[in-house]
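Extended Data, panel c. Modelled sequence:
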Amino acid sequence: MQDRLEGALEDPDDGGVIEAFGVLLPEGEYLPLLLDVEPRLVVPGQEGDYFSGEQVATWGIDQFWGLPEYPHTPYYRTFETAVDADAHLYEFVVPMVPPTWNERERVEEYVALMGRGTVPTAVAISTLDVCQPSLGLGDDPSAHWGLTHFLLDGHHKLEAAATAGRPVRILSLLALGDSLAGAEDSARLPAVRTQPRSARATST
């Protein structure tokens, strides 16, 4: 299976990958998606942090602590685009172990592989959460579509791609029953995800 994921999958169930990872997942309904991403590693509280930026613009800071939400882990930002005038999609990849735990030699192997044009494949279980502020605490009242990929395989690949500025492919198994999104929103996601990248324009 590791060899099959060394390059880019052309079909979601190429070589029985879904079956192999499916035995690790809870019983439920999943929508498989093949997505190409260019990850950027983000440290909470630093430049590019969604929780200190876009989330604050919509929800404001925590009313009790007077601080932004804190995700407790570095993560990757990969893509965003407009859903419509009042909603925006934000995509994240969350590693199950911190990048500092990755083996340096393995990361460098993938950096070299990507430098030769290879696009390896990672595997993730994913959720789509559609949330909208109700109290008007922030400056941007848009709905946020949060597409979050929790890595099952590919921690070294994601760090290598972020380091080298190269793309990586993700086989996303979207957990429909565990997402805070309606059936219509989940059905729209594949089309939304093919749109051009665009940042949310706000008045702030």
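Residues 4-193 form one domain. This feature is highlighted in the accompanying rendering.
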